[in-house]
Amino acid sequence: MGLREDNAMGARLRLRKAEPSDCMLLFDWVNEADARKSAFDGHTIGVKEHRAWFGRMMDDPNQAQFILLEEGIPIGQARLAFEGAKAEIDYSISSAARGRGLGREIIRLLIREAREEYPQVKKLVGRIKPSNAASYDCLMKNGFEEAYRQLEYDF
Predict the structure, then answer these.
(1) Where does 93-152 have alpha helices with state H?
(2) Gap between the Cα atoms of 129 and 136, Å rounded
(3) Tens-digit pLDDT profile for the chain (155 aa)?
(4) Could you tell me the pTM of the whole model?
(5) Could you tell me how far CA 19 lies from the centroid of its own chain?
(6) What is the DSSP track for 21-73?
């Protein structure tokens, strides 16, 4: 797997594969208030639960986890979950780096990574909550198209 680099928005950005030492970094990011608000399951994630998930994810050949670096500093994460010719994407930008258009850039780099390193993937899928306008905008600006809407009723 090669590193994907780009000089986007005047800053050097690149994706690298996640390493075992990234476990607690991802734990901190997943529990940020905005990340929990955007998640489909908004509960705070405990350390034990996260470590178990991280171990399973790192061992799963159907997932690829990446860290977004800006000039060598981790500022976000992205993941591909493979299912046949389709891969669902998940991404987030750390709270310290939000508001700079980096969501659009991480998706662009992830598309390139999928195209070049995972030739079995023919379609990327991004699922987002209707309230997550920023992610919707990032996906649409990267060429994603809305395929369907799901409506739910809670009792």
Answers:
(1) 102-117, 133-141
(2) 9
(3) 444 444 445 358 999 999 999 999 999 888 766 765 666 666 677 899 999 999 999 999 999 999 999 999 999 999 999 999 999 999 999 989 988 989 999 999 999 999 999 999 999 999 888 888 888 899 999 999 998 877 778 88
(4) 0.84
(5) 15
(6) GGHHHHHHHHTSHHHHHHSSS-SPPPHHHHHHHHHHHHH-TTEEEEEEEETTE
Please check whether residue 11 is in contact with residue 106, taking contact to mean a CB–CB distance below 8 angstroms: no
Show contacts of 79-86: CB within 8 Å, 24+ apart: 80/110, 80/113, 80/114, 80/118, 80/121, 80/124, 82/118, 82/120, 82/121, 84/120, 85/120, 85/121, 85/122, 85/123, 86/121, 86/122, 86/123, 86/124, 86/125
| Structure-token pair, residue 87 | 């891969």
